[in-house]
Amino acid sequence: MNDEELRPAWSEQFAPESLRELAAYGPLAGITPEWAWGGSTGAGVRVAVIDSGIERDHPALGDSVKGGVIVELDDEAELGIRVDPDEDIVDLSGHGTACAGIIHGIAPEAELYSVRVLGRNMRGRAMQFAGGIDWAIENGMHVANMSLSTSKEDYLALFYDLADQAVFKNIMLVAAVNNIPAPSYPSTFSSVVSVAAHFEQDPFTYYYNPHPPVEFGAPGIDVNVAWLDKQYAVNTGNSFAAPHMTGIVALIRAKHPELTSFQMKTVLMACAANVRRMPM
């Protein structure tokens, strides 16, 4: 896959003049980045990183990792999966640590929880993924970062149900969209914050796309990320755009815990760079 295939056109054409006028002069005018997350560190917000695990002692994470679980297939368990404590809290591939490092860089006082559903080869089963989301819902998480997805329609109803449960409990699900032009779940669901990559590097510069299913674009091209064995790497993909939005969501949630998931999406839209930027 080349850069052009990954590169969405996150230009001002995605925010029509009516949206920019609404943000500048209408009822959304007071919703600014300063109002939304100014001064926030993410303190008190619990974030589940549903991925390949997290390298707990990576220097990019400080002491932000507060716990972890492993979701395994188990034919003898209810629903065919079991959830075990991850006593060591390790990452099997580096991918989860990369996402966790991005979130911590934006929301340094958010509490991160490793929910390992992927193995060393970055493979996992849809039921493990679903089990990870279910654990986040049932264990008091406020935000879940999902830089993974499934394209199997057999699990569509299951993921719809989980997404609904998250909304009812006011848990924000943030999902990377597929790196190839094909639908993936649950990123296509309207209750989920769906994210693709753009080329800018400023972690707080993100764009709103009023033409779903992809709603937001965030940094994800040639991003310097934490990796295995206390190392760092430069990576590209929608996987690394999602945690940028997760970090911002954590900041907003810490400052405005009263906001519902629906209201949170409105705030994200109003603070997007291409919505707030008035045409020349």
Task: Describe it.
The two termini are 35 Å apart. The strands form 2 sheets. A 9-stranded mixed beta sheet has the order 3-2-4-1-5-6-7-9-8, sandwiched between helices. The radius of gyration is 18 Å and the shape is globular. It has 280 residues and is of the alpha/beta class. Strand 10 and strand 11 form a beta hairpin.
Outline of the structure:
Strands 3-2-4-1-5-6-7-9-8 form a nine-stranded mixed beta sheet, with helices on both faces. A two-stranded antiparallel ribbon has the order 10-11.
Please give the structural blueprint.
Blueprint: H1 3-6, H2 17-25, H3 33-37, E1 46-51, E2 65-73, E3 81-85, H4 95-106, E4 111-116, H5 126-138, E5 143-146, H6 156-168, E6 172-176, E7 193-198, E8 207-208, E9 216-219, E10 223-227, E11 231-235, H7 242-255, H8 261-271, H9 273-276
Parallel strand pairs: 1-4, 1-5, 2-4, 5-6, 6-7, 7-9
Antiparallel strand pairs: 2-3, 8-9, 10-11
Helix pairs in contact: 4-7, 5-6
How far apart the termini lie comes to 35 Å
Number of helices: 9
- The secondary-structure class comes to alpha/beta
Helix proportion: 25-40%
SSE run: HHHEEEHEHEHEEEEEEHHH
Properties at a glance:
30% helix; alpha/beta; 11 strands; 9 helices; single chain; disordered N terminus
